[in-house]
Design goal:
Shape: rod-shaped
Strand content: 15-25%
Strand order of the largest sheet: 1-2-3
Largest sheet: 3 strands, antiparallel
Structural class: alpha+beta
Order of helices and strands: HHHEEE
Length: 140
């Protein structure tokens, strides 16, 4: 067999591998609209985490959880996100008992479809309305 025949086979093999890699890449990567929805959900989680930190800070300072989200937001020096970044329903805070509260938002995607690691597992959510039960914690 000549070197030209081997060269053609290698060229064909490289072309097939390249085409398969491109097809696999297109199948694995989300569409731009799906990526946008995931970014919005990540922003919602970041907003809820800020509200969670603020509620815990309020609890440490006042020895009680705030009765509502407006009380929390009107604390001096607070610039808390109260509204959905995409214009959806406002975030919801609900006092459950003296040491527990709920933070709620409407999500566009199911977080189980993406990769979550570590502390983000505590913020896993389905698509749609979802509430997270949070605890104020110990006063240390």
């Amino acid at each position: 067999m000549s070197t030209v025949a081997w060269g053609r086979r290698i060229l064909w093999a490289a072309g097939i591998v390249t085409a398969l890699a491109m097809v696999a890449g297109v199948l694995v990567i989300d569409s731009p609209s799906q990526q946008r929805l995931k970014r919005l959900d990540n922003a919602r989680i970041a907003d809820l985490q800020a509200l969670d930190i603020a509620a815990r800070g309020y609890w440490r300072e006042h020895d009680m959880l705030p009765p509502d989200i407006r009380t929390l937001a009107t604390q001096p020096g607070m610039a808390l996100p109260l509204n959905d970044p995409a214009g959806g329903p406002a975030y919801n805070y609900r006092l459950l008992d003296p040491t527990h509260f709920q933070l709620c938002a409407r999500f566009s995607t199911d977080s189980s479809s993406g990769q979550r690691r570590g502390h983000l597992d505590a913020w896993a959510h389905p698509a749609g309305d979802h509430c997270f039960r949070r605890e104020a914690g110990d006063k240390d």
